[in-house]
Amino acid sequence: MRVAVAGGTGFLGRALVRGLLDARHSPLVLTRDPSRARPLFPTDVTLLPWTADPGALAAALDGADAVVNLAGENIGAGRWTPARREAILESRTLATDALAEAVRRCARRPAAFVQASAVGYYGDRADTLLNESSDPGSGFLSEVVQSWESAALPAGTATRLAILRFGVVLAADGGALPRMALPFRLFSGGYPGGGRQYISWVHCDDAVRAILFILGHPEASGPFNVSAPNPMEARLFYALIGRILHRRCWLRQPAWLLRLALGTMADELLLSSQRVLPRHLTEVGFEFQFPKVGLALRNLLAP
Q1: Distance of alpha carbon 61 from alpha carbon 64, whole angstroms
Q2: In a 10 Å sphere around its CB, with 0-12 CB exposed, 13-18 middle and 19+ buried, how is residue 145 labelled?
Q3: Sign of the four-CA dihedral 244, 19, 216, 50
Q4: In 10 A of CB 224, how many CB atoms?
């Protein structure tokens, strides 16, 4: 299977490319700077120049079996100034607009369009159990995710569309986990706010496996929560990190201090709560390799 990947140079994108190669597929990575991206990938990975022109994109995608869109600015890379908010939104919606229109223009259309999304779709919902039929929430991230998903909908008129709402993707070499673990390694570990907020998470290996599963199952369409079936309260999640690293979880980070340092970014990234279940994904037959957070964290953090 020839699979075009937008956002393939991110940590999840690189993991997906490795997964595609291991499964004997042929990844095509769309990137703004192929020469700079070349060292990130084996020589048998095809790199294609990214363009926002749907016509040129259609020529690049024509004949591909599937498209996976992971493109978007890192939401945690800097304080949410007005310029950062605009970049976070536009990096997602403009790229998705272009890809969806390109798929519609392909003479030989891909059989599937897999669109990344996030559990931020549901907003801050305390301990309410959420599944794919739950209503969207409010707040900046929820609005971004809703716009992101809406931008992908035109692709669904031309091919099978699956929207994957990822929880916090846990990996040893990227994403949120190294930042979560660093204070513990420095003997200053703790949890943010009151600690009662739920973290919906997924091991990076399961995130990749879920994408490959969706690609390989023609009946899989619509929204899917790609998060493990056991979301956990932050106080327990961070305490487990400490236990695995043989460190105390003692330095609680007050909400007011986080807001002072990060502004509204603190409320939506560290203090909000999404207790999300992967109902649709399990209904179509996917099984998690890491269904419980202790198993996942030990795999990623233990020596």
Answers
A1: 5
A2: buried
A3: positive
A4: 27
Residue of 131, 137, 196 lying closest to 165 (CA atoms): 131
Contact 26, 46 (CB under 8 A): yes
Task: State the sign of the Cα–Cα–Cα–Cα dihedral 10, 277, 115, 149.
Answer: negative
* Domain covering 2-171+200-229+275-284: architecture: 3-Layer(aba) Sandwich (3.40)
Q: Which residues contact 261 (CB under 8 A, 6 or more apart)?
A: none
The pair of three-digit structure tokens given for residue 125, joined into one six-digit string: 């919902």
Residue with tokens 């990190």, as numbered in its chain: 241
Instruction: Quote the pTM value.
Output: 0.96
Can you name the residues that pair with 276 across neighbouring β-strands? 130
Strands 198-199 and 232-233: antiparallel
Quote the tokens at residue 213: 């599963």
pLDDT in tens, 42-80: 998 999 999 999 999 999 999 999 999 999 999 988 889
Question: Residue 81 — pLDDT band, cuts 50, 70, 90?
Answer: very high
